[in-house]
Description:
Blueprint: E1 6-8, H1 11-22, H2 29-37, E2 39-40, H3 42-54, E3 69-70, H4 81-103, H5 118-154, H6 160-189
Antiparallel strand pairs: 1-2, 1-3
Helix pairs in contact: 2-3, 5-6
Amino acid sequence: MDYRIKIKTDQQILNLYKKIKQSKVDIPTHVNECFGEKLLDLEAFKWFNENLKKIDGPPLHTLITGDNIVLPSPPIVEPSPEYKEKLRKLEQRLKNKEYDAMTKNVDFRRVRLPEDTISYQIKQINRQLIAVLQFVISTAAGFLFGFMGIELMLSTTFDLGFKLLLGIICALIIALAEIYFLAKKLSEDYEPLETCGKVHQD
């Protein structure tokens, strides 16, 4: 796709181009093609501006209006099949949850959804607490490794400020890694399940 800005030639610009041709000026092939298509790229436009001065033409800014400028259109990106499939599964899951919520007071088999039980809520809270605790412990262990472990491994003594710097760097690296895996785990938890039931059809 061509992302270059182009200038559309109107009749006034074409008439000035004819005057330039009559002045026996060497016209590059590319410029001639651009005027034939009535669309000037920056190279042809620059050539036109330089030769316009030779024939004492009007100032260039008086020839250009908003209608002459042709901006490139952004490309239309087609969604990938994987994205479409995930979107379809998500819509299917949301429809199933809405249907279950509407019919659980009517159909005795749907009165107790897994999300409505206390045990399910406790399990979810425990999983979140474990994830937070794991994050804190891993970050603290990384800090201790940088603060004390490197010093013990090298059998040397560092200044307190340098030890703090090493500890913070190690803790930060581990914290970023933990955040990545935590976000990945959460995205997997919210990903639509393959075994979702079909939406009720009236």
